[in-house]
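Subgroup meeting minutes
Present: P.N., E.W., G.H.
Scribe: E.W.

1. P.N. recapped why we're keeping a running log of single-chain structure predictions: easier to compare across weeks, and new members can see raw inputs and outputs side by side.
2. G.H. added today's entry (99 aa).
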Amino acid sequence: MFAVIETGGKQYRVENNDVLYIEKLDVEDGATVELDVIAIGDDDGIKVGSDVNGKVTAEVIKSGKGKKICVETYKPKKGEKRKLGHRQPYTKVEIKSIG
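Output recorded in log:
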């Protein structure tokens, strides 16, 4: 059995005991969250839209920041240079149940 969930403007195909890095959620580590379900699939087929009445429960493992991405801007003949860095925040979750 699998489900398609939507969180942080992205969609993920998940199964039980999957571990995902998703966009940051405002919850503490160890908390349980319910995620929006778009579709559920099993041996009988796929249910999409208003036919879906299931829930996906996930446990938050940790929150953190990803690797640093360095961005450099440069304008030729002007002597203008700039270096920027960015670390994207994430939440690591484990899917506990699809039902």
